[in-house]
Amino acid sequence: MTVLVTGASGLLGRAVATLLVDGGHTVRTFQRRPSSVAGAADVAGSLTETVDVRRAVQGVDAVIHLAAKVSVSGPTAEFEAVNVEGTRRLLAEAHDAGARAFVFVSSPSVAHAGFSIVGAGAEPASPSHARGNYARTKAAAELLALAADSGNFRVSAVRPHIVWGPGDTQLVGRVLQRAKAGRLPLLGGGTALVDTTYVDNAASAIVAALTRIEYVGGQAVVVSNGEPRPIGELLAAICRAGGVREPRRSVPASVGRMGGNLAENLWRLAAPDREPPMTRFLAEQLSTAHWFDQRRTQALLDWAPEVSLDEGFAQLAGHYGGSTA
Amino acid sequence: MVALPGVDPLWSTHLDVPSTASVDPNGTVNRWHYLDNSASLAAEPHGTLLCVHGNPTWSYLWRSLLQTGADAGWRVIAVDQLDMGYSERTGRFRRLADRVSDLEDFTAAVGLAGPVVTVGHDWGGVVSLGYAHRNRENLAGVVLTNTAIHQDPDDPIPAALRLALHGAVHKVGTSGTTAFLDTTLSLARPRLPADVRAAYRDPYGRASRRQGIANFVADIPADSSHPSYETLQEIAEGIRSLSVPALMLWGPADPIFSDTYLEDLTRRLPHADVHRFEGAGHLVAEDRDIATPVFSWLAQTHRGSDNHVLRQHSDGFLPLWHQLGVRAGGMDAGSLAVADMGRDGAVTESLTWAELQQRVEGLASSLASIGVRSGSRVSLMVPPGIALTVLIYACLRLGAIIVVADAGLGAKGLSRAVKGAVPDFLVGIGKALTAARLFGWPGIRISLTELPAPHKRLLGVSHSLEQLTSLERGPFTAPEPHADADAAILFTSGSTGPAKGVVYTHRQLAAMRDTLATTFGIRPGSALVAGFAPFALLGPALGTASVTPDMDVTAPRTLTAQALADAAAAISATVVFASPAALRNVLSTSDDLTPDGRAALGEVGVLLSAGAPVPEPLLGRLQGLVPNASLHTPYGMTEALPVTDIDLASIREASADASTVQGAGNGVCVGLPVHGAEVMVSALDGLGTAEDEPTHDPGITGEILVRAAHVKDRYHRLWLTEQDSSRNSGWHRTGDVGHFDAAGRLWVEGRLGHIITSPAGIVTPVGLEQAIEAVEQVALAAVVGVGPPGTQAVVAVVEPVPSVRKPGLANARLSQAVRGAARSAGIPLAAVLVVPSLPTDIRHNAKIDRSRVAAWAAGVLGGGRTGAL
Fold it and tell me: What is the pTM of this model?
């Protein structure tokens, strides 16, 4: 099968592309920078250019769409252009090129606002409820994608929750960087139970969605390790694996949320191009429960995570030279 | 009309009804409003529920019945009585007799044919009973919710109504303002949503619309001179001959229609099924789902009575006091029967069998002379000892029903239990009488000793046991009560929700005696030390001499080794009953034992520790104190005492079998069923529901079911709970969860309500807690689930060593150790939390309140504040 993977230069995209190559598929990647995935053919280009997209989907059987603008800040128009219009373009071109399967890689934030999530399933995406430009545009794109599902062009949405692994710049990188700088507080004692997904598990779930597209076509599934842990324990394990000191300072969750909001706004005024140190979104992620019911996901995908959290931390420790205990 | 939440607009109907009520001039036609679910019915209904609201509600009260009735195939008609709700304001003062006529006029106009089940609330209950009394032809049943049919002319009516009737308050409170309406609506627990309150208030906007409310209140016959008194009396007496099935659903937290009125109604309709929703109040139809029980009750009564419990009738029934007579009349007449111990290690009082028999019969006669009779309920708040023993046997012999609740329930729990049992008499020590006075417990009060007149008056005490015993009475010759008559109401410990009253008949108590005798080889002529209250009373029944050691029974930890040895020495005891908490203290005070004390304990042949599981190491140490005794720890509950039994040697054998015998392990091994008991388990599905066919197969986890002649008869006024617990005909569902091993031994894994439903399947707490408690830094552990059923995360909450001052996440080392222990038991944990102490029950100080722990953990792990547990 010839599969196009968009966004293969990121942590998860690279893992997906590699898994497909290892599985004997012909893999093509599509992003602005080279993917450096061994055995895959790169097509350089942008989702905002129809010509680029058309070239990328030529002759593919399936598409796995990970490319997106993912930051937590930035101008709205950019998110719209890449995440919504880019997806619309890719769907149309893939369909016209004769692809039969399309996996849209989404995020649980498309369906949930900031309040605590306890054992929830995959609720429908809701752009009006999602918070922030990223979640809002991903929600709109997911709705577009699932609406495009049809008998000869099956589309599914997979929403991995907080993907991490060696080399991850999003969660692991930021946690280590802040912990090193002594700026990683534990909100509300760090007791909130949070689901995460080790990158290899997220990749295998996405590939499973492709092979099981007849079962998950037209539907969205949330993917996680199915091992919720208190956020304090997760952060401590990441720090230990990364060889930096664990966070000790606990800030009441409400103060954290308020502080996050303030910092977010001030930061945006002062330095519009850079990420704020603590966004309100992140504060919420770190202080309220976020974990999911994985029963439907695992049944539909006929899939189970292969790497446990603890094995993941060992991988992390191997990569960064830290410890697991 | 405002939008009515919960009401299908199609139900709302108006009808012009010609009146025959005496208050209306000839030819009067009144316009009625009523709710009728006919339009929602798919087929010909089984019959009709005729629902009558009270004051100041209206048909809206019954909306849940209309909804559920449509699905259950019952037509439900809920009227707005005239001058109420959206029915016509007639401008005439309608008295009770008019209201009963009104209802008859209405049903005639609707053309209601049978079968009819009346449903009533508040003063609508009276109207509905009046209708039922006079229209028996089509009557198929009566359902009553918080109402009253009779006011004892000697007792004042409830204070709230007295106030509402007071001249100065009446007009302003009922029609002039919405005070009466608002007060009634505010009785809902929890508070009514704003839209529901608005719906109730909607028909009563102006003072003129509220005249019916005022008249209803003024029509309450406060005394015999009232114009409606005679009608009320006629109905109250008339319903005594109602033989149709009756159901009473009650909210006991009602300032007006309290348990006293429920009690009165149950005496008039003794066959009624009764359920008290503990915590619910006057508006019980709002506070709880009454629709589901009403229709499941109807389905049962409609089907016919197939709910007869199969009773095992052992032919040779011998009442509990049988041995008492035998021994008093035989060679042992002069030998010691009962003894009490003093602090100094000497016997303070003792009775021979002849004296005991005489005291019991004498007290029975005296109690009869002050009005205690067959069927009277007598609440006993007396510590174990001779006084209590005599009292119990006198009551039982009389046919009175003894009510026993544990002081360990605390003042509030005890008060709830006593009020619900509505005793006719209350015998108590000073503390109990003070509480009775303070909390207004029902029942004629009897003190132990004769009190000075002012004290008597202050506490409202009418008699004393001392005075009753001093009356010289001959043998008690009244006929013995029937074997299947109620004998006792024993309250559960309340460690799993409000304490429940458990009813035993004489036959069941006798069966309990026989089971104990056979299982533990206790024969007449043995001698026992009664250090555990429930069994203390069985000495005379077993024909054994019994002694009560010196201890504070409300604090079992006060039993010392020497006190136990003194008691054993006093009667050359061969059998000892004690609770685990008492035995712990016995062990820790064993260094102070005298050589004579050690020798006395050396004579003990059987030691029974009942009440909670006893850890094997504790039993092992106890063995050193009673070297010649076999140590038993029976498993049971207030509803079935005992169910299984195991001794120390078998406990050790069972744990050694854990890796070799199929099903051994994961829980506490409680051994084999006792003599005469059958035990099975009903397997649990992935959501922790036990509905499967009961089985004996090893390794299958399910709810434990027991069948035995000594299992409870029923729960007291908890019809719903009883239905649930006895839904396998003849069996009692214990609410405990466990499994058998291949050797037929039962292993208890926890409470049904504490089952964790993880995505990988159900997880039971006990085995996992044992595995975690094996970790060196853990003193006590509770395993609970957080999250939605079926996908719960498993969480351990532990008391660590050394202890912590504040709750929170366990440190990395402890967390790793606990996770490792759990993983070895096959269960990955989502979180490990530490707390200064876990909540345990008062009675045994052993059962962890896992529901409370789970609720707390869910808050903490949801990102809420880490408050105290």
Answer: 0.88
